[in-house]
Specification:
It is built from two helices and ten strands. With about 200 residues, it is an alpha+beta fold. The mean pLDDT is about 85.
Length: about 200
Protein backbone atom coordinates (compact mmCIF):
# COMPACT_ATOMS: atom_id res chain seq x y z
CA UNK A 1 0.00 0.00 0.00
CA UNK A 2 2.83 2.38 0.87
CA UNK A 3 4.41 1.74 -2.59
CA UNK A 4 1.22 2.93 -4.31
CA UNK A 5 0.70 6.09 -2.24
CA UNK A 6 3.23 8.26 -4.13
CA UNK A 7 1.68 7.20 -7.45
CA UNK A 8 -1.79 8.06 -6.21
CA UNK A 9 -0.58 11.44 -4.98
CA UNK A 10 1.12 12.18 -8.33
CA UNK A 11 -2.01 11.13 -10.21
CA UNK A 12 -4.18 13.34 -8.03
CA UNK A 13 -1.77 16.26 -8.51
CA UNK A 14 -1.88 15.73 -12.30
CA UNK A 15 -5.69 15.70 -12.28
CA UNK A 16 -5.79 18.91 -10.22
CA UNK A 17 -3.24 20.57 -12.53
CA UNK A 18 -5.32 19.65 -15.59
CA UNK A 19 -8.47 20.98 -13.93
CA UNK A 20 -6.70 24.27 -13.13
CA UNK A 21 -5.44 24.53 -16.72
CA UNK A 22 -8.98 23.97 -18.00
CA UNK A 23 -10.31 26.70 -15.69
CA UNK A 24 -7.52 29.07 -16.80
CA UNK A 25 -8.35 28.34 -20.46
CA UNK A 26 -12.02 29.16 -19.82
CA UNK A 27 -11.05 32.40 -18.06
CA UNK A 28 -8.84 33.46 -20.98
CA UNK A 29 -11.30 32.32 -23.67
CA UNK A 30 -14.81 32.67 -22.18
CA UNK A 31 -17.73 31.33 -24.18
CA UNK A 32 -20.12 34.28 -23.77
CA UNK A 33 -22.64 36.15 -25.91
CA UNK A 34 -21.51 38.98 -28.20
CA UNK A 35 -23.34 41.55 -26.04
CA UNK A 36 -21.68 40.27 -22.85
CA UNK A 37 -18.26 40.31 -24.52
CA UNK A 38 -18.76 43.86 -25.85
CA UNK A 39 -19.84 45.21 -22.43
CA UNK A 40 -17.64 43.36 -19.95
CA UNK A 41 -14.58 42.14 -21.87
CA UNK A 42 -13.92 44.34 -24.92
CA UNK A 43 -15.67 47.39 -23.38
CA UNK A 44 -16.82 48.50 -26.83
CA UNK A 45 -20.32 49.38 -25.60
CA UNK A 46 -21.90 50.94 -22.52
CA UNK A 47 -25.24 49.21 -23.17
CA UNK A 48 -25.78 45.61 -22.00
CA UNK A 49 -29.25 44.60 -23.27
CA UNK A 50 -31.62 42.94 -20.83
CA UNK A 51 -34.46 40.69 -21.98
CA UNK A 52 -37.59 42.69 -22.80
CA UNK A 53 -40.77 41.68 -24.61
CA UNK A 54 -40.93 44.75 -26.86
CA UNK A 55 -44.74 44.56 -26.57
CA UNK A 56 -46.09 47.44 -28.63
CA UNK A 57 -49.06 48.38 -30.84
CA UNK A 58 -47.80 49.94 -34.08
CA UNK A 59 -48.79 53.59 -34.40
CA UNK A 60 -49.08 54.24 -30.66
CA UNK A 61 -47.31 57.36 -29.43
CA UNK A 62 -45.75 56.71 -26.04
CA UNK A 63 -45.01 59.22 -23.29
CA UNK A 64 -41.63 58.48 -21.63
CA UNK A 65 -42.00 61.02 -18.81
CA UNK A 66 -42.80 59.99 -15.25
CA UNK A 67 -46.54 59.43 -14.97
CA UNK A 68 -46.63 58.54 -18.68
CA UNK A 69 -46.89 55.15 -20.36
CA UNK A 70 -45.27 52.02 -18.95
CA UNK A 71 -42.30 51.53 -21.28
CA UNK A 72 -40.02 49.17 -19.33
CA UNK A 73 -40.53 46.32 -21.82
CA UNK A 74 -39.34 48.57 -24.68
CA UNK A 75 -36.04 49.61 -23.06
CA UNK A 76 -33.33 46.91 -23.13
CA UNK A 77 -30.54 49.21 -21.91
CA UNK A 78 -29.05 52.69 -21.80
CA UNK A 79 -31.85 54.58 -20.03
CA UNK A 80 -32.38 56.03 -16.57
CA UNK A 81 -35.75 57.11 -15.26
CA UNK A 82 -38.41 57.98 -16.11
CA UNK A 83 -38.28 61.52 -14.73
CA UNK A 84 -40.53 64.52 -15.19
CA UNK A 85 -38.40 65.77 -18.07
CA UNK A 86 -38.16 62.38 -19.80
CA UNK A 87 -36.13 59.19 -19.93
CA UNK A 88 -32.43 60.10 -19.59
CA UNK A 89 -29.89 58.36 -21.78
CA UNK A 90 -27.02 56.78 -19.83
CA UNK A 91 -23.70 55.89 -21.44
CA UNK A 92 -22.71 56.18 -25.09
CA UNK A 93 -25.52 53.98 -26.47
CA UNK A 94 -29.20 53.46 -25.69
CA UNK A 95 -31.63 50.98 -27.23
CA UNK A 96 -35.34 50.59 -27.83
CA UNK A 97 -37.06 47.36 -28.92
CA UNK A 98 -40.47 47.27 -30.61
CA UNK A 99 -42.44 44.17 -31.58
CA UNK A 100 -43.53 44.72 -35.21
CA UNK A 101 -44.53 41.31 -36.58
CA UNK A 102 -43.81 41.06 -40.30
CA UNK A 103 -41.06 43.38 -41.61
CA UNK A 104 -42.55 46.37 -43.41
CA UNK A 105 -41.59 49.99 -44.16
CA UNK A 106 -41.96 52.00 -40.95
CA UNK A 107 -41.66 55.56 -39.69
CA UNK A 108 -39.85 56.16 -36.40
CA UNK A 109 -40.65 59.31 -34.41
CA UNK A 110 -38.43 60.34 -31.51
CA UNK A 111 -39.02 63.39 -29.33
CA UNK A 112 -35.71 64.32 -27.70
CA UNK A 113 -34.21 67.08 -25.57
CA UNK A 114 -30.47 67.67 -25.23
CA UNK A 115 -29.03 67.66 -21.71
CA UNK A 116 -27.95 71.01 -20.23
CA UNK A 117 -24.55 69.87 -18.92
CA UNK A 118 -21.50 71.80 -20.17
CA UNK A 119 -20.63 70.36 -23.56
CA UNK A 120 -21.13 70.80 -27.30
CA UNK A 121 -23.74 73.19 -28.75
CA UNK A 122 -25.46 70.18 -30.34
CA UNK A 123 -25.62 66.52 -29.35
CA UNK A 124 -25.16 64.20 -32.34
CA UNK A 125 -27.29 61.06 -32.27
CA UNK A 126 -26.69 58.23 -34.74
CA UNK A 127 -29.83 56.12 -35.23
CA UNK A 128 -29.69 52.50 -36.39
CA UNK A 129 -32.15 49.64 -36.77
CA UNK A 130 -30.97 46.06 -36.32
CA UNK A 131 -27.41 47.32 -36.83
CA UNK A 132 -28.13 49.30 -40.04
CA UNK A 133 -27.70 53.06 -39.81
CA UNK A 134 -30.83 54.97 -40.84
CA UNK A 135 -29.81 58.53 -39.98
CA UNK A 136 -28.03 61.19 -37.94
CA UNK A 137 -29.78 63.90 -35.98
CA UNK A 138 -28.57 66.83 -33.86
CA UNK A 139 -30.27 67.64 -30.55
CA UNK A 140 -30.05 71.07 -28.90
CA UNK A 141 -29.52 71.40 -25.13
CA UNK A 142 -32.76 72.21 -23.26
CA UNK A 143 -34.78 72.23 -26.50
CA UNK A 144 -37.40 69.56 -27.17
CA UNK A 145 -37.68 68.56 -30.82
CA UNK A 146 -39.37 65.83 -32.83
CA UNK A 147 -37.41 63.81 -35.38
CA UNK A 148 -38.92 61.48 -37.99
CA UNK A 149 -36.86 58.79 -39.73
CA UNK A 150 -37.87 56.30 -42.41
CA UNK A 151 -37.08 52.63 -41.80
CA UNK A 152 -37.02 50.54 -44.98
CA UNK A 153 -38.32 46.98 -44.69
CA UNK A 154 -34.93 45.64 -45.82
CA UNK A 155 -33.29 47.14 -42.70
CA UNK A 156 -35.41 44.89 -40.47
CA UNK A 157 -34.45 41.33 -39.67
CA UNK A 158 -36.78 38.35 -39.52
CA UNK A 159 -37.04 38.38 -35.71
CA UNK A 160 -40.36 40.26 -35.63
CA UNK A 161 -38.73 43.15 -33.74
CA UNK A 162 -37.29 46.53 -34.62
CA UNK A 163 -34.18 47.00 -32.47
CA UNK A 164 -33.47 50.73 -32.44
CA UNK A 165 -29.98 51.91 -31.46
CA UNK A 166 -29.16 55.47 -30.45
CA UNK A 167 -25.42 56.17 -30.36
CA UNK A 168 -24.10 59.36 -28.76
CA UNK A 169 -20.64 60.29 -30.11
CA UNK A 170 -20.69 63.53 -28.07
CA UNK A 171 -21.91 62.06 -24.78
CA UNK A 172 -20.96 64.28 -21.83
CA UNK A 173 -19.05 63.18 -18.75
CA UNK A 174 -21.09 64.63 -15.83
CA UNK A 175 -18.15 64.70 -13.41
CA UNK A 176 -14.58 63.71 -12.67
CA UNK A 177 -13.85 59.99 -12.45
CA UNK A 178 -17.32 59.04 -13.69
CA UNK A 179 -17.36 55.87 -15.77
CA UNK A 180 -18.51 56.26 -19.39
CA UNK A 181 -21.43 53.99 -18.54
CA UNK A 182 -22.91 57.06 -16.77
CA UNK A 183 -22.26 59.71 -19.43
CA UNK A 184 -25.27 61.80 -20.51
CA UNK A 185 -26.59 63.02 -23.84
CA UNK A 186 -30.37 63.28 -24.37
CA UNK A 187 -33.75 62.89 -22.72
CA UNK A 188 -36.43 60.89 -24.54
CA UNK A 189 -39.91 62.31 -23.98
CA UNK A 190 -41.99 60.55 -26.65
CA UNK A 191 -41.64 57.94 -29.38
CA UNK A 192 -43.72 56.03 -31.90
CA UNK A 193 -43.23 53.48 -34.65
CA UNK A 194 -45.84 53.53 -37.39
CA UNK A 195 -46.42 51.85 -40.76
CA UNK A 196 -45.01 54.11 -43.48
CA UNK A 197 -47.58 56.07 -45.46
CA UNK A 198 -47.73 54.99 -49.11
CA UNK A 199 -46.21 57.34 -51.65
Amino acid sequence: MSDRSPLAIYALAAVLALAELAILWQALHPNVSADYRAYYIDRTTTCLPQPVTGAYVLGTELNFRSGGDETRELRPCGWSGPAGDGMHSVGETSRLRFAIGTPQPLTLMLELTGVTLPGPAKQRVVISVDGSKIGDIAVTPDKTERFTLAIPAKALGESGFANIGLDFPDAINPGKRVSNTYWRSVKLTAASLSPAQPG
